[in-house]
Amino acid sequence: MTSIQLLGMAAGSISAITFLPQVIKTWKTKSAGDISLLMFTFATISVIMWLVYGIILRDIPIIYTNSLVLVCSLVMLYFKFRFGKKTTTTTEL
Question: 3-20+35-83 has which fold?
Fold first, then answer.
């Protein structure tokens, strides 16, 4: 692996890590009402396109980065559908 590829892998790891705080917070709180479905839908589509691009070019850092980010994006979409609806309690009525 070249130093350029190592740089790409390091940058990709940092990019993927940026999603983790939101994933962890949503998982712990079981609340995704304030998460933008549209943003994560576009992000997921974009990441899939980047992943295909990386596969076509056989570029390991692009494949690695976008695979990690895709997992985080899909988890957030799952959480949005699972925890996205806010429930109303009787004290709020």
Answer: Monooxygenase (1.20.1280)
